[in-house]
Amino acid sequence: MTKTENFGYLGYNFQLKILNLIITDKTFAQSIIDSIQSKYFDNQYFKLIMQMMKEYYEKYQSVPSFEGVEQLTQLEISSEMAKKCVIDMLREIKEASFEDHLFIKEKTIKFCKQQELKKAIRKVESILEKGEFESYDKCEEYIREAITIGDGDNGNLEVFHNLEEVLKEDYRHPIPTGIDGIDNLLNGGLAKGELGVILAPTGVGKTTILTRFANTAFNMGYNVLQIFFEDNPKIIQRKHFTCWTGISPQELSDNKEKVLHKADEMKKNGGRLILKKLASDEFTIAQIKNQVRKIMSEGVNLDIVVLDYIDCVIPDRSYNDEWKGEGSVMRKFEGMCHELNLVGWTAAQGNRSSISSEVVTTDQMGGSIKKAQVGHVIISVAKTLQQKELGLATIAITKSRLGKDGIIFENCTFDNATLEIDTQSTQTFLGFEEDKTQRNRKRVQEALERREKILNK
């Protein structure tokens, strides 16, 4: 084979990293495993490992782990010397650097597309030479299959596929929000590829709750990107130190030593918490995706993106219908989370009627209701004037594809100053409405009693 027909011209380390990604990144592996061939590697042991993985995948429809490849080596390779060389090579593959993984993926996919396109062109030429013009559809199919290599599968899935993974207790691997009542209802939080939306009127605390979610994920060792449009970066930094110290943002300067000590402690946490300020109404999701990819290409394997908030993002093209554009933005954000394997949290503004509501419902989302159709979870936050004064709120799970919805947490602790959020007693929407009726009756009764007293006087 010429140098452009195998990965040899890209170097030894490049081939190590390809094999590492095939074993560790299941989504990438499934997108490429059918088209990548063992002959594309220029090292005999690379070829052997790739061939074992392909045979395993054809049989079990999943890619083996490092331990699985090692077991295959022990079982299928008879030569002790070859066996030792393969196991040593596996250790090298396992230790391969992750820093430029996006470049490796892109180059590998392009290489495989090129090879498949060559095969497709030869098939098409054969059809044309034979004059089989009625087979035009086949020509189109061959070319389409070649150029979509690595773009993901067609979405079809046998119901019995990979049942061992499906039936695992922790099959989703959710990242908690840190608010017990919400996490319990979401079966642990959101998992990668899932999108959650906070719905609240202006001034209620969208940034507060999203910052808590970001802070909790970082505290658990995850890599977090928090994007915001309307706040000063120093304000967001102070909010995080308030989460860690319990000291309100206004009082952090007076407790500088304690804050600096906490900063040194949190630096050892293991995760990354990256804050990114963007200009409002100037960025599309495609541009945000490029920002995310850049961070990941620099070696930060992000787990969660918090976008504060979705209404500040513009559509990537003009729409005659403004609402259609808003729905498109939310759908593209959900698609980004799925494609890059991230947990996504964002917020949406409530409409005018939501400002005075005791409970904010999905139909009170500002702009297009299509935004509500996309999210896996919608959590609303409402505050009456009295609740604002007392640092309380009413939180409701208005939509959930992951567990129960229609649940209300009335008069939760929700302090924008200290970022303390704590769910207490729960009830359903129906129960809340019934209680509301009883509360109204009680108010009427009290008003009648006051009126009676005045008349008696």
Keywords:
457 residues, alpha/beta, 10-stranded mixed beta sheet, Rossmann fold, 13% strand, 17 helices, 49% helix
Shape: elongated
Mean pLDDT: 84
CATH first level of the largest domain: Alpha Beta
CATH architecture of the largest domain: 3-Layer(aba) Sandwich
H/E element sequence:
HHHHHHHHHEHEHHEHEHEHEHEEEEH
Stretches where pLDDT is under 50 for at least 5 consecutive residues are none
Largest sheet: 10 strands, mixed
- State the helical fraction: 40-55%
Structural class: alpha/beta
Please describe what this structure looks like.
The protein is built from 17 helices and ten strands. It is an alpha/beta fold and 457 residues long. It folds into two domains: 3-147, DNAb Helicase, Chain A, CATH 1.10.860; 180-424, Rossmann fold, CATH 3.40.50.300. Strands 1, 2, 3, 4, 5, 6, 7, 8, 9 and 10 form a ten-stranded mixed β-sheet that branches. A hairpin with a 6-residue loop joins β7 (392-400) and β8 (407-415). The radius of gyration is 28 Å and the shape is elongated. The N and C termini lie far apart (107 Å).
What are the SSEs and their pairings?
Elements: H1 12-24, H2 26-32, H3 44-60, H4 66-76, H5 80-94, H6 101-129, H7 136-147, H8 163-166, H9 180-185, E1 195-200, H10 206-219, E2 224-228, H11 233-245, H12 256-267, E3 273-277, H13 285-297, E4 304-308, H14 322-339, E5 343-349, H15 370-374, E6 377-382, H16 385-390, E7 392-400, E8 407-415, E9 420-422, E10 426-428, H17 429-456
Parallel strand pairs: 1-5, 1-6, 2-3, 2-4, 4-5
Antiparallel strand pairs: 6-7, 7-8, 8-9, 8-10
Helix pairs in contact: 1-2, 1-6, 3-5, 4-5, 6-7, 10-11
